[in-house]
Amino acid sequence: MANLSRQLEEWVGASLIGEDQARRILAFEASRPGGNRLLYSFVALGASIVALGVISLIATNWHLIPDSVKLGCDFLLLSLFAGAIWQRRGDSSPLAREFLLILFAFGVLASIGLIAQIYHAGGRWDQALLFWAGIILPAVTFSRKRFLPFVWTLAVLAAGSNTLIMVPALDFLFAIDERWLWMLYILPLISATVALLLRRLRGSELFVEAFRGWAWSLAMGMVIVADGLRMLDSSGREVIRHDHPVPFFIFGALFLVGILLRTDLEASLRYLLAILVSLYLLHIPLAFLGGIHHWASALFVLAIFALAALSLVWHHRPGLANLLVTLLGVRFLLLFLTAFGGLMETGLGLVLCGSLILASLWGWLRIRRRLFRWLEGLAS
Amino acid sequence: MIAWFGRYRLILSLLLPILALLGMVVGKESVRSLGAEVRLAIEGFDPRDLLSGHFLLYRVDYGPPVCHSAPENPGGPVSPVEIPAFVCLDEPRRFGYDEPEGCRLAIRGSCQGGRFIAGIERFYIPEEYARSLDRVVRDKQGEILVRIGGRGGAQVVALLIDGKPWDQAARSEFSSPEPFGR
């Protein structure tokens, strides 16, 4: 916001826009989900710490206080939060309402824990989280910032994955100890699919952003894990048995077809995403099931990170793109260190490859327009 | 109808979690008050659940062997995933994967990794008594009092040490509670 204020001042000074326009632009930006990030980060941090403190207090198990008093205080607190949110519904400053929404959401989660404690209830963590996600969703839709939707989405993805893994019907597909790996492999695609389906729902922009954000993060995380496993065991042995991962490949193939059929995307972006997803779908199983050397895994990683960075820039996510480019550089360095061993050889290799990258970039900038026009011609 | 809903959407959204939690409490309280009472022997250990405080996690002794094999493979290994199962508490007690016919009192649960899980395998206790109670239960002096609802859902009501409620046993048997944090 400070940068925007400075820019607007410059534009007003250069008579490009009027002062009234500048004020209206600032007000509009302040009300958007990404406005005033630093302040909002502290609000979210403060609210989360308060909520965690409440949960810790519950965890001390005050057996001297009657259960009815504990429950009464809990419901009173929730009602107070709800009342305060209702009172601030027309508030021009969204921060206070966001703070209260976070407290309310975590307060509900803490209440589930309190009830479980009072009645000595068993049950899995994923069941509790899914229950919380279900009952708090309508309230979360009133959030105008990213924090709550992102936390809610993470809860649903984590808890939903565990629930799916425990389904007895999947017994015939693969062993229980390998299910988490396959689930994490396919989870980014599931998350991206949900983001795509939610796009048509009015008012779901923050959830779309959340599912998409987690899809990217999980996918890159899985690539790093798979590559790491191959680096640690360069013998090419399989990490897990290949117990019928066919359904995942089918889902992956359908996802790929879905991307290619998306007419709302530019053809060049569609092909870029299709190549990226294809590399991801190939890399993870090859890394887990063995059969590729860690050098081959490194090449996959470099290609995936480069294409992902390109795609993220296209989607106006420069922060994540920069992170991927940094990770790409680190992986490059590791590749050369393992390949050559010595510093001198590594240095020569890096100079060579860095020059190759710059030359490729120059060549790409020269030919990309012609390439995309050709691809678009193919598509039509 | 839609306009009305839109106007009151915030209130309904805020009321939903509160009413859902109230429903949970009412449901559990009804089993605790009206369910059939049963006493079961236990043996256990003590982990921590960050969300819900200290609890005693134990294995319940139902009598007959439970979850000894997967239902589709009677002589084979146990299944690692959850499979619905029942324990009939009428004498003689029996275990099965199908709902027992003619059984007046049965606990509904599931088999996971060779253990029968019915939602009654934990009892929340104050931190300062955790180690003492864990020791006592490992010595097989513990029992739980359980209430069972109409559809076989069970709920722990009390933890008994040598037949006495755990807090009474704690006052008379334990010289002092374990210091906090040790």
What keywords describe this structure?
heterodimer, A: 380 residues, mainly alpha, 14 helices, 79% helix, B: 182 residues, alpha+beta, 7-stranded antiparallel beta sheet, 4-stranded antiparallel beta sheet, 27% helix
What topology emerges from the helices and strands here?
The complex is a heterodimer of chains A (380) and B (182).
Chain A: H1 2-13, H2 19-31, H3 37-59, H4 67-87, H5 94-118, H6 125-140, H7 147-165, H8 176-198, H9 205-232, H10 246-260, H11 267-289, H12 294-314, H13 318-340, H14 343-379
Helix pairs in contact in A: 3-5, 4-5, 5-6, 6-7, 7-8, 7-9, 8-9, 8-10, 9-11, 9-12, 10-11, 11-12, 12-13, 13-14
Chain B: H1 2-7, H2 9-34, E1 36-45, E2 48-49, E3 53-61, E4 83-88, E5 94-96, E6 106-112, E7 115-117, E8 122-124, H3 130-138, E9 142-148, E10 154-161, E11 164-165, H4 166-173
Antiparallel strand pairs in B: 1-3, 1-9, 2-3, 3-8, 4-5, 4-6, 6-7, 9-10, 10-11
What report would you give on this structure?
The complex is a heterodimer of chains A (380) and B (182). With 380 residues, chain A is mostly helical. Helices cover 79% and strands 0% of the residues of chain A. Chain A has 3 domains: 31 residues, no CATH class; 110 residues, no CATH class; 214 residues, no CATH class. In chain A, helix 7 crosses helix 8 and helix 9 packs parallel to helix 11. Chain B has 182 residues and is α+β, with helices and mostly antiparallel strands. Chain B has 2 domains: 34 residues; 138 residues, no CATH class. Helices cover 27% and strands 33% of the residues of chain B. Chain B is built from 4 helices and 11 strands. In chain B, the strands form 2 sheets. In chain B, strands 1, 2, 3, 8, 9, 10 and 11 form a 7-stranded antiparallel sheet that branches. Chain B is globular, with a radius of gyration of 20 Å. The C terminus of chain B is likely disordered. At the A-B interface, helix 3, helix 4, helix 5 and helix 6 of A face helix 2, strand 3 and strand 8 of B.
